[in-house]
TrEMBL record:
Positions of the Peptidase M16 C-terminal domain: 188-358
Domain Peptidase M16 N-terminal: from-to ranges: 38-165
Taxon lineage: Bacteria, Bacillati, Actinomycetota, Actinomycetes, Propionibacteriales
Pfam families according to UniProt: Peptidase_M16, Peptidase_M16_C
Name of this chain's protein: Pitrilysin family protein
Organism: Microlunatus ginsengisoli
Family annotation (PANTHER family): METALLOPROTEASE, PROCESSING PROTEASE
Amino acid sequence: MSSFPSRPPVSPPGPWSFPTPTRHQLSNGLELVVYRLPGQQVVSGHLVLELGLENEERPYEGVATITSRVLDEGTAAHPGEEFAEVLETEGAGFGIDVSLAGIQAVLDVPVTRLDAALPLFAEAVTSPALGESDVRRHVTLRLAEIEQAQANSSQLASMAFREAVFDPAFRASRMTAGEPDTVGEVGVDQVRAFHTERFGPRDATLIMAGDFRTDPVELAERSFGGWQVPGQLAGRREQPAAALRRAVLLDRPGSVQADVRLGGFGVDRTHRLWADVTVASYAVGGAFLSRLNAVLREEKGYTYGVRFGFSPMRSGGTYALQGSFRTDVVADAIATARDLLDVSARPITDGEVADAINYFVGVSPLRYATADGVADQAAVQALMGLDDDWVDRNLAALAAVTAPAATEAYGELVHLDDLTLVVVGDAEKLAEPLSASGFADLEVRAI
């Protein structure tokens, strides 16, 4: 009879915290944030430009996106396809993310190739070719992208909800990557002017995370230290405001289901009730077995899935119920959802709070287990004006949430009598029941 060694004891997980960076400033003023992560053999670099989209000129909204998408189409030193070829030779990937808060250029590269790849990364941002044919092609692609989005019911509902929730005077009310009438006006002159005037080391942060074999500070200085933009314009920041409550039905004749958004103007991560309402919204609609999903999907079979949560921006944000429902049950689904969104009669429970805390606390070590995860979160913090220890402070705040605090915060921030409704579906079948169910001011619009 064979014997096996006894099973080793399993200890509870130890305390976890988000990595602590070192901060440096390059000779040109560019902020450098370095995360030294032993064992992470793929380095992730994010160049964060705190260049909010309110800095686009209104007639050319979308120029930030077009400019960003053309960065890797060739540089002064490596024109055309040559840039992509040399970047690929180093095993590096280049990406772009444009949000309302700003622009991120992203580099992922094996640590053994970082010395060669980081100068190429700097080239793309500091001296791109910005060729006329490349600009025209990306404008054409963006216009096609808009058409595709408008043909997608879910995307259309999200765009219409943004338009309905934010005061139209603010950039947040319009598409992040620009709309047809403004994108179509973007040409090479606008792109080059935007890059010349807006891209620069002022209000920019370079984030690097990985297990470095060379000094990342020296490498960053060699790659970016010579980036000088004396005429770089100072950016400005908007603080969006809410629009008046609306109810909008976008007509898609013949649709067998409808996409629904029901919510309002929200708060950002700096709000004093952020942790409390995060826990509450997870219980209401953030988990698979949340209140909304348990009733609308599991019990009634109205939808394949529904969710509810807060989407923070640098200043303010939104909260919304989102889901797709069969056309014949839309009015009842919305009425049921409104009842479920009311926690005054059924407060958040201790069990729901415990489930939410276990999820948020438990998922963090996995979410930030890679250099990319750490750099991505650090980039979010830079764009949102958050401190380096925000993750740890937020997790501590989440762990301290109680059921009464979650219920109270939710009631203070979710205004059930002032919810904006957007529905994309068959108006012939939906207009009357929606009007009769409490939306007498329903606007019916053609797509």
